[in-house]
Amino acid sequence: MPVITEIEDFKRLYRRRVPKMFYDYCESGSWTEQTFRENSSDFDEIYLRQRVAVDMAGRSTKSQMIGQDVAMPVALAPVGMTGMQHYDGEILAARAAERFGVPYCLSTMSICSIEDVARNTSKPFWMQVYTLKDDAFMKNLFDRAKEAKCSAAVITVDLQVLGQRHRDLKNGLSAPPKLTPASVANMMTKIGWGMGMLSTKRRFFGNIVGHAKGVSDPSSLSTWTAQAFDQSLNWDRIREFRKMWDGPLIIKGIMDPRDALEACNVGADAIVVSNHGGRQLDGALSSIRALEPILDAVGDKIEVHIDSGIRSGQDVLKARAMGAKAAWIGRAYIYALGAMGQKGVKQALEIIQKELDTSMALCGHTDIEKVDRDILMVPKDFSGNWA
Ligand code: GLV
């Protein structure tokens, strides 16, 4: 068994253990993948300021997200088809998150259903909601989330149409996977994954099958999004969703200060600055570059989180010091889940916390709540001086 010391180690194992179709789904951005790449590489342009001979004893990474206590300011982001990366993947990731003390957000496009995850966990999780045309489906989804005692709803607003990811089309991505000569040949080399999948009944989009009308192929993400998603979504419609859900609300997928202000007007409790992990608008700025103008626009009207590109505790520290209240991770835990299941996700969270904690100490801080922009050296034009 290789010694795991960083998230990249999980990625190498993950690539070996999970069918290509699902590895590619996770590890893709849209079109040229410029935004996907820059989401991570832009973090390298921000430097941390080392301090010495400062008392570094007795440190804490504890914080809060939308008023909920967290062991560190990190959430597990909603990731479609997590239950194809590892059998019962959503349940296992949610369990790892609850034991560690960070929020888990279930995707609408999960394999395990809301009810499955609720039955198999003991703390409330968050429910991500896609904006579909079908009003009955939407009402029912919020009701199901309420029934399952979800402690926040997360409306993703950046996927009215699906950004094209070439590899998903070339691989014929579906859940469960269609049996073609290429997919069968590849799956034959992923014995552990296959045995796991045979041991569970959860192989379909659990929140959709039996709930959504008018979808001709519920196994295909692209067919499903093209047929069911609401291309005419606007802020009035989002206000209708706000009325369907009276709990804490997070709006995810904001990249522009004007949209951030709209989200404040809807009565959301937080926004996530996100370009969907570089999977939607290719050519958009990285989330970390988009963050500051949004913070400037909203002030303290709303809590601002960030996702896209975060692969380490150092990235979390930089995001936090730039002003984000919290950072969400997607791929960083999916690699670990695909590699080693629940144990992997737990270890990934430990690795990120250790990186965060040690780097914070080396910047001269003992409490994540007190970290501010002073620990950063950010290029003057980092957030852009765009014409
Ligand atoms: C769906 O959320 C996706 O990005 O694939």
TrEMBL record:
Pfam families: FMN_dh
Signal sequence annotation: none
Record InterPro entries: Aldolase_TIM (IPR013785), Alpha-hydoxy_acid_DH_FMN (IPR012133), FMN-dep_DH (IPR000262), FMN_HAD (IPR037396), FMN_hydac_DH_AS (IPR008259)
Listed cofactors: FMN
Family matches, as Gene3D superfamilies: Aldolase class I (3.20.20.70)
Name of the protein: Alpha-hydroxy-acid oxidizing enzyme
Domain FMN hydroxy acid dehydrogenase: 1-381
Amino-acid positions noted as binding glyoxylate in the UniProt annotation, renumbered to this chain: 25, 165, 276, 279
This protein's encoding gene: lldD
One example GO MF annotation: FMN binding
Family according to the record: Belongs to the FMN-dependent alpha-hydroxy acid dehydrogenase family.
UniProt-listed CDD domains: alpha_hydroxyacid_oxid_FMN
Keyword set, alphabetical order: Flavoprotein, FMN, Oxidoreductase
GO cellular component terms attached to this protein's record: plasma membrane
Binding-site list for FMN: 78-80, 107, 128, 130, 156, 252, 274, 307-311, 330-331
Catalytic residue list: 276 (proton acceptor)
